[in-house]
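Reopening this ticket.

The earlier resolution said the output was attached, but the attachment link was broken on my side. Pasting everything inline this time so it's all in one place.
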Amino acid sequence: MTKIRHLVLILGDQLDHQGPALSGFDNHHDVIWMAEVAEESEHVPSSKIRTALFLSAMRHFAKAQQELGRTVQYVQLDDPDNTQTLAGELARTLKASAPERVVMTEPGDYRVLKAIEQCAADQGCTLRVLADSHFVTSLEEFKAHAKGRKQLRLEYFYREVRHTTGLLMQGSEPVGGQWNFDVDNRGAFGKEGPGLVPPPVQFAPDEITQDVIGLVDSRFKGHVGDLSHFNWPVSRAQALEALQAFVRERLPLFGRYQDAMWSGQAWLYHSHLSSSLNLKLISPLEVAQAAEQAYQREDVPIEAAEGFIRQVIGWREYVRGLYWLKMPGYADLNELGADQPLPSFYWSGQTDMACMRDALDHTLRLGYSHHIQRLMVTGLYALLFGVRPKAIHEWYLSVYVDAVEWVELPNTLGMSQFADGGQMASKPYAASGAYIDRMSNHCNGCRYKPKEKLGPSACPFTTLYWDFLIRHKDRLAKNPRMVMQIKNVNRLDQATQGQISLQANEHRASVLAGA
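Inline output:
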């Protein structure tokens, strides 16, 4: 066999056919290396849907590379000699083939990077890690943006990216005369509900996906997720079809209703492109450009195009930059001292809170819930309950099909749990049941009353919200964006505050006892 020049390592979230690790690939001297290992589904108990998506997309990618005449060395999950760890499989290959070097693109997980670096060093093999051109902003550019700033905030970063890309720009000014149209993007559905919303494109499992589903169902029996619902894009062609359908059918109303929720409605006007983006089947720039072009054709209003583009080339890139800037210490932050375990109903979905029950049903059954359900339902409850940040982080990383640590960890610890003390967001996203009532119909059929904070009908979100403010009022009083909320707490007499704290603690005890 010809000596291998480059062993090109492709991870499950690096399925970009134009990725930098494949640049200059020599069909005669280079080999693509991919491995399915149980470690990646067991270091946190990955949902069966999440695992199946990764493995199916990996196999489709490998097949496409082989059709280009490239050699692919692919370790399947059920290969008898599989050591079931990335480092173990890479070491086995390096010992057997001794390539000149391993080439890879920057991974999306600090743990994985360190494992590969250590493996290459142990085997005496050169490792070359290339900057990831999938993103609009490189890690070096983000470091330059962050240098000298006391605080990092999305808005300043987002404006820089708009200038750099030219998206929704007229010269040096934003199209529409303003950078942000969020004031127009906070609509609820009203009593009539969302009506008939065009569903996302459904992709029936092909033979490759069916094989993966059988394997995953057998190998990870105890993991959550119903594979009979599997219909996610697993190839670039499918991801592009999903993008086109979203822009055509749901983007026009995405902006207005991006924060709205409705019982039994998992998809609504959301794009469902996050998994395709995070697997790198499609790029953020082409996704953002598709939205911009729809606005230019007058198919969508400016608030829809801008709100979506901000998520894709603003927030997503900002989160990634912060992750690599702050790791590894960021993962251990717990500025609010939260110390409660994760309630068991996060895994079972069995709860009498209607909003939680609905969000957990989508999550556990489909591997998906939209961003407001994650931030302002499951995440909000964990924040108010006082769940250890690492526990809720590991849950989010386990259950969602789009979860890769670079994007999930900062969203959870920074945005949702305020565990970084404000490095990422300017204030905790703390709210009572009134917010959920305003943005959904969940409270209509719930046994709890969102406006009540005390008594048997009090909404746990509302009780825990006031308890959260009471517990942290000294810290939060120093935050200019929390002044009004703390003033409201201080209007409560000591007896009422004591009753709230008592009921909150009784609720915690009841939940943790499994009652």
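Reporter confirms the inline version is readable. The two ends are 64 Å apart (CA to CA). Residues 302-326 form the longest helix (25 residues).
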